[in-house]
Design goal:
The complex is a heterodimer.
Chain A lengths: L1 H32 L6 H19 L3 H24 L10 H24 L13 E4 L2 E4 H23 L1 H11 L1 H6 L4 H27 L7 H14 L4 H21 L10 H15 L14
Antiparallel strand pairs in A: 1-2
Helix pairs in contact in A: 1-5, 1-8, 1-9, 1-10, 2-3, 2-4, 2-8, 2-9, 3-8, 5-6, 5-8, 6-8, 9-10, 9-11, 10-11
Chain B lengths: L1 H10 L9 H19 L9 E7 L7 H20 L8 E7 L4 H14 L4 E4 L3 H14 L3 E3 L6 H4 L5 E3 L4 H15 L4 E6 L2 H16 L4 E6 L7 H8 L7 E5 L2 H13 L9 E5 L8 H5 L7 E4 L9 H14 L5 H20 L4 H9 L3 E3 L2 E3 L20 E4 L12 E3 L16
Parallel strand pairs in B: 1-2, 1-3, 3-4, 4-5, 6-7, 6-8, 8-9, 9-10
Antiparallel strand pairs in B: 10-13, 11-12, 13-14
Helix pairs in contact in B: 3-13, 4-5, 7-8, 13-14
The chains are: A mainly alpha, B alpha/beta.
Amino acid sequence: MLDYFLIQSANGIVIGVIYALIATGLTIIFALLKIVNFAHGELYMMGGYFGYYVITLAGVPPLPAVVAAMAISFAFAVAIERGLLTPLYSPGMERKSDYGILITFGLAVFLRNIAIIIFGPFPLRPPSFFDGDLVLGGLIISYDRLVAAGGGLLILVLLIFFLNRTVWGQALNAVSQSRESASIVGINSERMYMFAFGLGGALAGGAGALVAPIYSLSPSMGLVPDTQAFVIVILGGLGSVSGSIIAGILLGLSENLFIAFLPDPNRGPSYANAFGLFIMMLVLLFRPTGIFGRHHAAME
Amino acid sequence: MTGEHTKRGSSGINGKRALPRRDVLALASAGAAATLPVFGRPARAAEPVKLGWVGPLSPPGGYAEGLLMKYASAMAADDINKQGGVLGRPIEILYQDTRGMAAEGTAAAERLCVQDKVAAIFGEFHSSVALAEMEVVHKYNVPFLACDVWSQEVTAKGYPQVFRNSITFPLLDVMIGDWIVAAGFKNAALLCEQDDIGLAWRKGVADVLTAHKTPFQLYTADPQATDFTAQVLRLKANNPPFDLFLVLYGEAGAYPMTRESHSLGFAPTANTALFVSGGEAVDPTFWKNVGKAGLWLICENVGLPKSAWNDKTKAFVAAFNAKYKTDPPGSAMEAYDAVWNLAEAIKNSGSTAPEAIIHGLETLHWVGTRGLYTYSTSKDPAWAYHQYMDAPESILQYNAQDQSSFDAPIVWPKKYATVPYLYKKPTA
């Protein structure tokens, strides 16, 4: 029983780290641009394909391919931001949030469908990071999952360091709190918006590249993580990076344990996604700003 | 308004210089010349026979299968047109993406019936969508030849316009259930996606197993799920242990499930067999996704087994492979034959009127890539009405990695079997 619990917990943490990675990107974009990026799941999907083609076309090994996928995703997200989101920064623009919703929602549909044309409709899978499974007594977990979790945690640690200890990170934070105040001290807020969207895209793309050997790639693979990321962002508190990380890991863990220990084994996997929404409803009932949320949506 | 046009005409949109009048005249002359061949034809080309295709080409539907069915349909239209078309008229197919959603299917069928005025509609991949489309074709009295939809309700409704050339769950489930019993499995776990397809499939197999008093357990999962570790571990720990893991899931879920089931030591193993139903295990990227986990996997094939191929099957498989660099699954053969079925029905009845096509299909006797096509007019049982009762189906088990589904040993039914055994236990 202990082995069973350990395996389920380990697997839940792996999934949670991936959730956290996606949700953190969504949080950063929301905190800076004040829009909900409905195309975030598609950036996750595109990152997975970028990694796949870097491996298969350029012959790059799977681990460096994750870094390459993040870099390409960053550039791709920046291009999207420059091409579609700059009207948000115009002082004359009315109903900015409506524009943000419509443009990112349309982008999501476009990317999903263009992916079918470009990458093909059938699932693809890049080579494993490392073949085989780690067996420790009764604990079995594939090396791919360990690498995904380890890689995801490393990216999150580097992200926290970047946000808290670098000038660019603090500039992002400043713009998220007050665009006008940031401008007074010489921060180019429009450049920070561009950077934030790119960073969010890179995090989502990195998550896609990390899970590709585990789940396979398909044009519709972003649908579920997208929903889960929204749940996590709200659970963790809008704008809270650390809240997203903790909520992501908690959600992955609790979902897995829910499936593993629900008395009726027939129901668990059917309601795993609904379970996340149920947790969110509970949290919002008692803490409307989320676990780490504040009344304003600045990044912290 | 006129002033604005004048302004744009002189200075161009966005202030760019407009084309000089000389260039405009040259362009206009070139455009007029380009139309000359059309207007210069001695007689107007024959009006095409319009057929409507419905099926998923984008998420959340099964767009991968939909695309292969679309390719196969286009090939059929090309082949028919090369032979002079039907009634001296070319076949034209109008494609409608239904995205696997009933509402989209209804809208697509409405467009095809009312706006495009097609002679007949064919295709589809999702039973729930076909059931919605059927109501539209029934209302407008347009023949509908459903292809890869397996719910018995499609034909059981008894609509005179509706035919089906694929298998249906009562046929498939009996075959799978009979094989489970014949192969001697003692305890089966049935896991399917929680939607109309999964639940209908599960019920059919469960009914057969219940009738044969074979123990089994039923499980469902979200159709969008891709992580099954928790569920697989739970199944592995079951007491008494399962000796058969039977799964019906879309590719996005079926492939990770196969890998996870294998890597966690559940199935396919010497203790537990793995059967992946629904066609995912014969799709083009199956081996790329599952690798060694696919070895000893069992699945059904709804195309004609290679041992029973006729000249048309061989020609179609070769042409499909040459064009799309992959083997056509059974669903593609269904789509290819559907166009031919409709063309033959029109040809035999000498008309594109709905009643003529329906009569042509009811009296059809035509050999296609999947064998001899005839459509039952019996309503006993209800689902047999307008059903292709001899739709081919077989069960195969891979015995080598990267093996083509065409070359895998067929273990069931006996009339198609290519090996003496019913199930081969994986070797270490």
